[in-house]
């Protein structure tokens, strides 16, 4: 009997880097391979890695206030789903991770994919733009408008 050695090449997935131009599929593949990366977004096919420290007065408190307000609204409004820093698959080139979102659970603009992600435009997206003003008020705003986020 002849033994045949099978050699399988070690495949490595490239790191997700700020400024990479990727498809959403490749972005997700690389993002999944980097479990220690806390927040990365794909906006107009470009990767943005957000690693800035978050200050309480500029981000933490406004974020908490928005989540509190949306939680109260949700408590009194049936059929809503509230998300905090959830990934949203808007279209082929955009996968933002907004600070908060509110969506109609059944019959709204968005759905939940089999793997648990929001797909399509939720009814409301909130961005606390303290450290990312340029990105939030230009590229993301255009993406949200084009995808009919209210």
Word description of this protein:
By secondary structure, this protein is α+β, with helices and mostly antiparallel strands. The chain has one domain (24-146): tt1808, chain A. Helices cover 29% and strands 18% of the residues. It has three helices and eight strands, in the order αββαββββββα. A hairpin with a 5-residue loop joins strand 6 (111-112) and strand 7.
Question: Can you lay out the helices and strands and say which pair or pack?
Answer:
Blueprint: H1 24-32, E1 40-43, E2 46-49, H2 56-75, E3 80-84, E4 88-89, E5 100-104, E6 111-112, E7 118-119, E8 124-126, H3 133-146
Parallel strand pairs: 4-7
Antiparallel strand pairs: 1-2, 3-5, 5-8, 6-7
Keywords: Endonuclease, Hydrolase, Nuclease
GO molecular function, one term: endonuclease activity
Protein name: Uma2 family endonuclease
